[in-house]
Amino acid sequence: QVQLVESGGGLVQAGGPLKLSCAASGRTFSTYAIGWLGWFRQAPGKRREFVANTVWSVGNTHYADSVKGRFTIARDSAKNTLDLQMNSLKPEDTAVYYCAAASYGRGPVADPAMYNFWGQGTQVTVSA
Question: How far apart are the C-alpha atoms of 126 and 51, rounded to whole Å?
Fold first, then answer.
């Protein structure tokens, strides 16, 4: 069982940066059998959508087209976190952001059903 805890959400003006972090509660990510770690988001009235993920063992990354070039997903080995650096934020980036882990890392990376562990979410609000 992987317990994920997100942090770093908040209110930011359009064009500004914000950094989210995800930690494995009480343990290091390396002690779990993880295929993928990723970020999803869900805005009010909308479906949960893929933001970015990384293949845990090799560090390959994937991004949604809507965030490509603005967001960066990265592992911080020293802090034992999975970070999402978000730059040039837009009001349409406003959502609850979720950290997710997939034990096997198989199938479509953008499909929430491929991920079997989820954090509680952190709110990101971008003002115009």
Answer: 16
The answer to whether residues 85 and 74 touch, using CB atoms and an 8 Å cutoff, is: yes
User: How far apart, in Å, are the Cα atoms of 88 and each of 12, 28, 30, 79, 115?
Assistant: 10, 31, 31, 25, 28
Q: Of the candidates 122, 118, 95, which has an alpha carbon nearest to the alpha carbon of residue 25?
A: 118
pLDDT digits (tens, 9 = 90+) for 22-80: 998 877 777 777 889 999 999 999 999 999 999 888 889 999 999 999 999 998 878 88
